[in-house]
Predict the structure of Protein prey.
Amino acid sequence: MLEWSSQELNHYKMVRISKALLKEAGTGLSKTLSEILVCPLTKQPLRVCEETNSLISDSIGVSFPIKDGIPSLVPKDGKILGVDDDQIKSDAADAAMNKE
């Protein structure tokens, strides 16, 4: 019989929970998951941008891609938002207005 260490068992449980959350989300992110995730650099909340299928850190202006429903929060995968990203910035303004 296969015996797992406590660390392996915890990892297995986390993977199963993540898979369940991602399955519920389909191609996007579930509301629950998007509320939990934070920017890996600033630890500030991330905003989902459906248009670019990414998570945006408004505090530092970085976009993290969502690939096959899985957010890639590795800092090297982040894209610094520039002047060309006016639509994303206007989405941020709209999101801020909706929160009020």
